[in-house]
Amino acid sequence: MSDEKASRQHDNTREAVVQALSRTRRRTLDIVAPISEPGLGEQHSPLMSPIVWDLGHIAEFEDLWLVERLGDVVRESALPDTFDAMRTPRSRRGELDLPGRAAILARLDDVRRGTLETLSRVDLDRSENRLLAGGFVYELVRQHEAQHQETILQTISLMESEPYVPVARRQFGSPGPVTVGAMIEVPAGAFQMGAPAGPFAYDNELPRHDTRTDAFEIGRFPVTNGEYIEFMAAGGYDDPTLWTDGG
């Protein structure tokens, strides 16, 4: 491959990385935009972190993997204690002196500038650095941020201190009539379980392997709240014929 062709491929890969990181960041910022300053800092449930903690953790995780680990600086500890999930459990995060909105957004921006500057210098095909192969580490960090988007949305669903109105909503067409209780028969058969070949997958998605299931039935539509209430009222949780030993 000529140097010019290799350079074009690197530029295309870099641009794809930048676009993917940017799309994910826009969604993060859109999710938290409607939330007030107190709402960001409050621990709305002992099961969840203050939302500003998630934002700080996103920033420090990106700084660790996309700036420091790919640059020339190495920290003694993996993450600052405040935003280290192992050193600071959720039960203590509501007691932390966490930054406000302006400071945490500035930190996210500052880290992203460092990420883009480092990205402009690294060789994405360096065989001796497996983090870079196929843009692996960039997808790792992007997926990590997307995970915390889900966590933040879970927190929002538990938030009672203020209403939440998203900055935008998807428009869906009518699904048409729904037949409650409609089931689909799935025949027995083999399939491949696990992530397909690609630059990134979580460890619990690997290895991809052949497996087999017996025939079963599954609902055509998700269980409704009404169906769930009927099940509980009919004593479904107390009927051993409906449960396996493990269930």
N-to-C terminal Cα separation, in Å? Answer: 57 Å
> What is the approximate shape?
globular
Query: Strands of the largest sheet, in order across it?
Result: 1-4
Order of helices and strands: HHHHHHEEEEH
Number of DSSP helices?
A: 7
Spatial extent as radius of gyration: 23 Å
Uncertain parts:
1-8
Strand content: 5-15%
- What is the number of beta strands? 4
Helix content: 40-55%
Assign the structural class, choosing from mainly alpha, mainly beta, alpha/beta, alpha+beta, or little secondary structure: mainly alpha
**What does the largest sheet look like?**
2 strands, antiparallel
The overall pLDDT average reads 90
Written account of the structure:
This protein is mostly helical and 247 residues long. The chain is built from seven helices and four strands, in the order ααααααββββα. The strands form two sheets. It has a two-stranded antiparallel sheet with strand order 1-4. Helix 3 packs parallel to helix 5 (101-119). It is globular, with a radius of gyration of 23 Å. Residues 1-8 have low confidence and may be disordered.
Q: Which key terms come to mind for this protein?
A:
247 residues, mainly alpha, two-stranded antiparallel ribbon, 7% strand, disordered N terminus
Helix and strand layout, with pairings?
Elements: H1 3-32, H2 37-41, H3 51-68, H4 90-93, H5 101-119, H6 136-158, E1 183-186, E2 189-193, E3 209-213, E4 216-219, H7 225-233
Antiparallel strand pairs: 1-4, 2-3
Helix pairs in contact: 1-6, 3-5, 3-6
